[in-house]
Amino acid sequence: MVGDGRYAAKTSQKEGPRLAARPFCLGYADLVSELAILLRLLALTARILLLLAGLLAAALLLLIGLLTGLLVLLARVLVLIAHSGISLVEHSEEITGRSALGSMGTLGASAVKLRQRPPQG
Question: What's the pTM?
Answer without folding.
Answer: 0.40
